[in-house]
Design brief:
Elements (H helix, E strand, L loop, with lengths): L2 H5 L4 H22 L8 H18 L4 H32 L2 H10 L7 H37 L10 H32 L6 H20 L2 H7 L4
Helix pairs in contact: 2-7, 2-8, 3-7, 4-6, 6-7, 7-8
Length: 232
């Protein structure tokens, strides 16, 4: 198949927009997980609270509250993983029906856009959604590992294995949270990528808006201010 006629469906602006959203996604993820000491992110702040939680778990009796927290975390990952599966199925169904793509283009008054271009644009969205799905599935599994290790913590807080196992459970929980947060960022950028359906400028705006929303919530939100406040 000659790719040149197909590639002619895209302009330099399209290439720039795709590069922008991919770069924004990668750079923002790195900054959130490895923030400068002067501007720590909410995700990193929560790591210490997770460690404190598991230390408290050792002496808390009964431990039903901890099981409830972990159960809610797993339910959240299950919900988002299921939503991603539905989105992936819907996107593939649209790609597999060229007539529906043509009809969608006509509805948006973008009839000049080729079917191939529509397929590529939808595949970009699905790439973010698929990445989110994989991250949510792995987070769900890691939260399960954390639950098993928590269950292996002796009831006797003076037991030599109690706090080491709590520390292990905390680190697994933190890793699970990282995977969940990566999935959430991919969902945000998947929504931003839908702007490409309106053209390259739509994708650029979507990339910028997604980046600003995540950056604000991680580095300038009210929840961050609360977490930074010293305990009274």
């Amino acid at each position: 198949m000659d790719m040149l006629p197909l590639l002619s469906s895209f302009s330099a602006s399209d290439a720039l927009a795709v590069a922008l959203i991919l770069l924004s996604w990668a750079v923002l993820g790195t900054l959130v997980e490895n923030p400068p000491a002067s501007r720590i992110s909410v995700s990193v702040l929560m790591q210490d609270y997770r460690r404190d939680w598991l230390r408290e778990h050792v002496t808390r009796q009964p431990r039903i509250f901890d099981a409830t927290i972990l159960g809610s975390l797993r339910q959240g990952t299950t919900f988002f993983a299921s939503a991603c599966m539905i989105a992936i199925g819907g996107g593939l169904a649209v790609i597999g029906n060229p007539d529906r793509l043509t009809s969608l283009a006509d509805d948006l008054s973008l009839g000049g856009t080729t079917v191939f271009a529509w397929e590529v644009k939808i595949l970009l969205i699905l790439s973010f959604v698929a990445n989110a799905f994989l991250k949510f599935v792995w987070a769900h599994r890691l939260f399960g590992y954390s639950a098993v290790v928590m269950g292996a913590i002796p009831n006797d807080s003076s037991h030599p294995s109690s706090y080491p196992r709590a520390a292990k459970a905390a680190e697994i929980n933190i890793t699970a949270a990282k995977s969940f947060n990566r999935g959430m960022r991919s969902v945000y950028f998947a929504l931003g990528a839908t702007g490409w359906l309106l053209g390259p400028w739509g994708l650029i705006v979507g990339a910028i808006v997604s980046t600003l929303i995540i950056a604000r919530r991680e580095f300038a939100s009210e929840s961050r201010r609360v977490l930074l406040n010293k305990d009274g």
